[in-house]
């Protein structure tokens, strides 16, 4: 039952992220400031609501970093990722039912049509974001402000990345809207690159934390 609650929490968190934040992006045409703040605020809200249940990953890139850092089991990793993708699909599906326009689902796009450049951008942005999460969740004394810091970090990477790719840094967030919109062109970049970025963040943090110890 405990595991089920964690997976349900991840489903709900990712559902809200896609419905609200991608909804804001779609309705505002990807406005830099508004969209960035929307993604950040959703993370803050979810961190303080479901964080005590699942840790509020709501992102496979975060989960794979936690797996690499040995902070979660392979079983939980698989359960989290399945829940995250299902949540993203449900969020995108409801958003589509509300707006009735596949162009307003906040989908991502390759920067200048270049898959490799987009891959590098997404991997770097994800690494920055996940490195922040690993750092702020590693100390109990940071627990009260962790949600705020993580939300601010997501806002930051969106401020840079929106004009490039629309900013994914989250495979589930990209896949859900892309599938519902019927446009999977280049979506592999937004699935694979964040995972690479998450793994890279785990490696970097392990090195830095190990040196500190």
Tell me about this structure.
The protein is mainly alpha-helical and about 210 residues long. The chain starts with a helix and ends with a helix. The chain has 9 helices and no strands. The longest helix is centred in the first third of the chain and has 26 residues. Helices cover about 75% and strands about 0% of the residues. Helix 1 packs parallel to helix 5 and helix 8 runs antiparallel to helix 9.
Question: Care to give the gist of this entry?
Answer:
The chain is an all-alpha fold and 213 residues long.
SSE layout and pairings?
Elements: H1 2-27, H2 32-47, H3 51-54, H4 60-68, H5 74-99, H6 115-136, H7 146-161, H8 171-181, H9 187-212
Succession of helices and strands: HHHHHHHHH
Q: Helices and strands: which structural class?
A: mainly alpha
Radius of gyration: 16 Å
For the secondary structure, the number of strands is 0
Distance between the termini: 36 Å
Largest sheet: none
Q: Quote the beta fraction.
A: under 5%
Low-confidence stretches: none
Principal-axis shape equals globular
- Helix percentage range: over 70%
Helix run count = 9
List keywords for this structure.
73% helix; 0% strand; 213 residues; mainly alpha
